[in-house]
Specification:
The complex is a heterodimer. Chain A is mostly beta strands. Chain A has one helix and five strands, in the order βαββββ. Chain A has a domain at 20-67. In chain A, 6% of the residues lie in helices and 38% in strands. Chain A has a four-stranded antiparallel sheet, with no helix packed on it. The radius of gyration of chain A is 15 Å and the shape is extended. Chain B is of the alpha/beta class. Chain B folds into two domains: 1-31, no CATH class; 35-235, 2-enoyl-CoA Hydratase, Chain A, domain 1 (Alpha-Beta Complex). Chain B has helices spanning 9-20, 30-34, 61-73, 91-102, 120-126, 154-172, 178-185, 202-206, 216-235, and strands at residues 37-47, 58-60, 79-90, 108-116, 129-132, 137-140, 197-200, 212-213. Chain B has a six-stranded parallel sheet with strand order 2-1-3-4-5-8. A two-stranded antiparallel ribbon of chain B has the order 6-7. In chain B, helix 3 (61-73) runs parallel beside helix 4. The model of chain B has no long low-confidence stretch (mean pLDDT 83). The chains are: A mainly beta, B alpha/beta. Chain A binds chain B through residues 1-6, 8, 11-15, 17, 19, 27-30, 46-47, 49, 52-62, 66-69, and chain B through 1-2, 22-29, 32, 38, 45, 48, 51-56, 60, 62-63, 66-67, 69-71, 73-74, 87-92, 94, 115, 117-119, 139, 141, 143, 146-149, 162, 166.
């Protein structure tokens, strides 16, 4: 339930579009949900961890790009 | 990627590849550990149980809540500055963040910049001390029926109950009274085609919602003051 000053139609614009496919991968010892962005790199969608300190690590913030080789 | 003091970035990367076989290492960076204050920004829509379309800029509560736990848990983090520029969002997620902030033992100061509308108001008042910039606005308005709630007769009662949760939280954690808050929420003539009140900077302080008008300097010096007070109390 939303409590916002933005009209609901604006908030939900694009709701019908399919979200980008995601995958789960352990990067640097942390399980995360990633959106693949081409070869060996992906955008962090969310972190799946029970260690709260993982959520403070700057390289894992949602939206950041992680790379692996 | 965090940088170890005294080592160039490439060397750090090489070292981690050598030691752990990978370039990215999960660790709280050394700078994070030495910084006494952390800053949490609440921006755009507060996202709750539903993933909002990518056009919205969102604050994700499933990320913010463990961050608050980490801040509370880490003895090296002495204080938290919460910067708000939000248009509102999910009630339950907003209240969850507000309740977490309220119950933290780490000193917290909120700073409303730009806007702290709707569900942003309980988050702003949840901090131990709240500051609003002179030009920032806060919109106090009733919870409306959106397309997400099915129109059954119970709906009105349900909305009322949700509204009471928000009102109770704000009243309990600020100087504003229930009567004043309700009056602002249902005031007509202030908003175009809607009921509610827009409070700009000083007005939010005058009604008792926010503690002080100021900026980042005000907020940080208040935080330092609270931290030193706390360490003095700890010694005694």
């Amino acid at each position: 339930m939303l409590y916002t000053v933005v009209p609901i139609d604006d908030v939900l614009e694009g709701m019908e579009e399919e979200p980008a496919p995601t995958m789960e991968l352990i990067v640097g010892g942390v399980l995360m949900e990633l959106e693949p962005q081409g070869d060996f790199q992906a955008k962090v969608v969310r972190i799946i961890s029970s260690d709260p300190q993982d959520y403070l690590a700057s390289q894992h913030q949602p939206g950041s790009i992680v790379r692996w080789t | 990627m965090s940088e170890k003091p005294g080592l160039p970035q490439e060397e750090v990367t090489l070292q981690t590849i050598k030691e752990l076989g990978q370039a990215e290492v999960a660790q709280v960076s050394p700078e994070v550990e030495t910084q006494p204050f952390h800053c949490l920004t609440i921006i755009g829509q507060i996202e709750g149980h539903m993933v909002l379309p990518p056009r919205n800029k969102t604050t994700k509560y499933e990320h913010v809540i463990p961050q608050l736990v980490a801040i509370e848990q880490n003895p090296k983090i002495k204080g938290l500055l919460v910067v708000l520029n939000t248009v509102g969002g999910d009630i339950e997620a907003g209240l969850a963040i507000a309740e977490m902030l309220k119950t933290m033992s780490t000193p917290t100061v909120s700073l409303v910049l730009g806007g702290g509308h709707s569900i942003g108001a309980p988050i702003a008042v949840a901090a131990d001390y709240s500051v609003i910039s002179a030009t920032a606005t806060m919109t106090i308005h009733p919870i409306r029926l959106s397309g997400l709630v099915i129109g059954v007769p119970q709906t009105y009662e349900y909305l009322d109950k949700m509204q009471d949760r928000v009102i109770r939280f704000i009243v309990e954690h600020s100087r504003v009274s229930t009567e004043v808050l309700r009056d602002m929420m249902f005031r007509t003539g202030e908003l175009v085609r809607d009921v509610g009140t827009v409070l700009v900077g000083e007005e939010a302080v005058r009604v008792g919602l926010i503690n002080e008008v100021g900026g980042v300097g005000t907020a940080l010096s208040r935080l330092s003051q609270m931290v030193s007070q706390r360490s003095v109390e700890g010694v005694q």
